[in-house]
Amino acid sequence: MQSIDTTGTFLLPPQGSTMAADVDALFYFIYYVSVFFFALIVGLIILFTIKYKRRGKPGLTSGPTHSRPLEIIWTVIPTILVLIMFGWGFKDFIRLQVMPHESYEINVTARQWQWDIIYAEGVTSVNELVVPVGRPVKLLMSSRDVIHSFYIPSFRVKMDVLPNRYTNLWFEATRVGEFPLTCSEYCGQQHSLMRGTVRVLTEEDFETWISENANLLENLVTLEEGGELIYNKFLCYSCHSVDGTAGNGPTWRGLFGTMERLEDGSEVLVDENYIRESILNPKSKIVAGYQPIMSTYQGTLKPEYIDAIIAYIKSLSN
Amino acid sequence: MEASYSDRPKHLAHHFAESKQQYDSAKLGMWLFLLTEVLLFGGLFLAYSVFRAWYPETFVNANKELNVILGGLNTIVLITSSVTMALAIRSIQLDRKEATLKYLFVTLLFAFTFLVIKYFEYSHKFHEGQLPGKFYTFEGIDGTNPHIFFSVYFMMTGLHGLHILGGIGVITWMMIRVRKNEFSSQYYTPLELTGLYWHLVDMIWIYLFPMLYLIR
Amino acid sequence: MNTIPEQNFLTAEKGLKSWLTTLDHKRIGILYLISITFFFFVGGLFALMIRLELMFPQDEFFIKLDDFNQVFTLHGVIMIFLVIIPSVPAVLGNFVLPLQLGAKDVAFPRLNLASWYLYMFGASFALFSIFTGGVDTGWTFYAPYSTTIDRSVISMTMAVFIIGFSSIFTGLNFIVTIHKLRAPGMTWFRMPLFAWSIYATGILQVVATPVIGITVVLLVLERLLGIGIFDPTMGGDPVLFQHFFWFYSHPAVYIMILPGMGIISETITAMAHKNIFGYKAIAYSSLGIAFTSFLVWGHHMFVSGQSEFAAMVFSFLTFFVAIPSAIKVFNWIATLYKGSISLDTPMLYTFSFLILFTIGGLTGLFLGTLSVNVTLSDTYFVVAHFHYVMMGGSIIAFLAGLHYWWPKIWGRMYNEKLAKIACGMVFVGFNVTFISQFLLGLKGMPRRYATFTSEFAQLNGFSSWGAFLLGAGLLLTAIYLIHAVYKGKPAGNNPWGALTLEWTTSSPPPHNNFEKSPTAHYGPYDFDKIVVESTLDD
Lengths: 318, 216, 538
Fold this sequence. Notes:
The complex is a heterotrimer.
Chain A: H1 20-51, H2 68-97, E1 104-111, E2 114-119, E3 124-126, E4 128-132, E5 136-143, E6 148-152, E7 157-161, E8 167-172, E9 177-183, E10 195-201, H3 203-213, H4 223-233, E11 259-261, E12 267-269, H5 272-280, H6 303-315
Parallel strand pairs in A: 1-5, 4-10
Antiparallel strand pairs in A: 1-2, 2-3, 5-8, 6-7, 6-9, 9-10, 11-12
Helix pairs in contact in A: 1-2, 4-6
Chain B: H1 19-54, H2 56-63, H3 68-93, H4 97-128, H5 146-179, H6 189-214
Chain C: H1 16-20, H2 25-53, H3 65-101, H4 109-131, H5 145-148, H6 153-180, H7 193-225, H8 238-272, H9 279-292, H10 308-336, H11 345-368, H12 370-376, H13 380-410, E1 412-413, H14 416-442, H15 457-487, E2 489-490
Antiparallel strand pairs in C: 1-2
Helix pairs in contact in C: 2-3, 2-4, 2-15, 3-6, 3-7, 3-8, 3-13, 4-6, 6-7, 7-8, 7-9, 8-10, 8-11, 8-13, 9-10, 10-11, 11-13, 11-14, 13-14, 14-15
């Protein structure tokens, strides 16, 4: 397995998509324009300071107070330059926004604080976006809770992920490798931990990966084992411990069969149905002392995965 | 030469050279303040437009629930109160203190009338469950998210109502000052500013009424 | 030898009560100075806590994730709403503007004092919020996170609301003062450019601030009553909140930078003893910036899901707000030509401003460009960019102004040698801190991150060391400035040989500003016609 690609230039991260080189070209155009003007301004400050440094008591000074030609020049030249930046940037922006027709679609569901990547083939992965190289990929994104932002620096793409509508993003990876993926819109406590990896595979490797992951539970002996796998794979551990330590949600250790006191003062028995309900409709029964921060796993977890989790939680109470 | 302090009028603050400068300053300041008021309401007008564009059907159906007669009555009440306010200022310009007091009092009465009518409207809505946001329980409006309409309705009329309350306070204070003989045809700036404020509150209602009650 | 006049505004009345009930614009300016400096150091402390946590790649090295999120939120809210927005207008605008206009006070002295009380009242809400659960939404309060999180968002947003009205009343007061209280002879085009910038700022304060007022009211109602305007589960729209928020907060950026630009026009002419180059261009570009700044708020939302058409319009207009800023910089540079350039501390800060603001402005070009913005928005590049503009621009200009007018305010000079050392520390520390952050952003580190992966470790380390140097420089500044208030050498009326009216009265000025109401006989920067000797003996 490759490690994260940390090549790239002094200023910019590696280029991993078809858009990256174009965006970078414009970046360097603005960069050199900026360097020129910065050098000009600092150079003039130094020059004038040396040349006209005050010596003794100052007398009358006689420099010009205006100059029409000069003022026109320094208005018009920057205007032309920024218009170039605008037009060029807009052109590439449109390419970033318009989805190619024949692209491979993947659903991305953001939640506090993970990315659920859901493939049409029935594969779900968390925080790991696996895509084929050389094929346009379109992400159809939505959020279960607050606003997130999906960002792959090496692909030069980013898009906010909203709770009340779908947003899109597309890219075409140009080379096999691993690239970081992050959330760039502040989304709460573990915002900075909401990161993952983009794995770009060859077309064959990708097909293999899809078929291997179509059913995670296939090669496992017991249901509990499957539950543990789901627990780790879907990052349940970021809120629920299995060793009794406190977290954002109740620990699973010794949970099954107990009575939980809810926010409204009533009590509920932790049984199979309660666990299922808490996964599919987590905000309906909040245990006292916890925040309603979990959102539904409907559509993310297949029914058999939920069975496995229930079996796993049961096993933690024996 | 500046006038020495002894022959300056009492109302003239130390940092102004003359009465006209003070009067112009106060008036400009008031206009700027009214501008901020317009923008404060502007945010709500924007929210109204956005949600109207999003849920046109809801807005059409929901505003049938508002009582056009009571709303219309309130419009007349407020417009008339603007007239009496203008008459109050006219009277002080003519040094007619008693008339000023009388007109201010009538203005005050109209303001209370407005609030009473508003109270009946509100209590009807409360009774029907036509309440903002999550308190909304009414079930008779076709369209998605009817509670949004009532959120917008209560925020706009509520903020306007608060301004009426503020106006009542200021007008009462002005009546006290008139009684204390603080104003005359030489100096009545605070009264005039109160008038400007009251006309603005009136103006805002003149926009709210058609937007909420009339446009179908 | 200079002496301090016995009768001045500081000695006019005695006792705490005389300060808390004062209607004198100069004293109100000092009340603001004290309160803003206090909050500046509180906000600075939070900044150092951020940098300490990010100094090493270990998760929760110094504070927990939750605490980190609160700390960066408080840093943002305090620095923006309690420090930078009021800083230049409320402190220096209050003190200097009426003096520059030759007026005895601002138009509405009581409203002026009330603004300060509103400010303190609002600030107390902010402090209350810190002690009752804190806020971890970031200073932007984006819904739906801010409407659902169980924290004391309400009192923090009420603080913003109240301080907003303080800002509105200050702006209103200054606009009327400029319109109505100019001294005889002080035509619009004889007005110092600082007054022009305060005027443009006032317009922004009056027009933009009510919108943040209604926005936070809606946010509070959303939390209290669930009105559903911003709540996606009830048919509301969180992106609408962003539009509301930036409709104010983008002009607010110019509320913060325009007065700073005004200060630079004053210091660069006085310290170079040179008539300003392009007076009208600078004055009009202030108004141009004020106007255009209302039309560009959407450039904060290029990746928020707004339409491509909106993005195009906002990007286009954004570039047009860049032009007047560029014109100003060129004018200031041209002002130096054939001047008589002194390198005293106000000028060092002016040069710092020119360099840092130029970097801030040029990096704005990257962010205004649509395709490049997509990859850079919400990264540390943005953080570095706005610190270059807000701190490198506004705060550095504020420091330039403080060093320039300090002898006028207190009648005494500070220690020049320490001031130059501190200025160097601030300049170097600032650049080390934020150049590192530009590079972090380019490499893809998102903002508001409490932890980071090892690839970002080295640059974060640099940034933190820079921040400590910057903090030390600012602390040193506070020390020698306070020392100067009591022990500084008397400066005389006009230590810089400047021509604007505030230098014609004594230092500190008398209670009524001028012994005799002044008349403006010449322009504010007529160094090509008049020589006024510095009162500072070497």
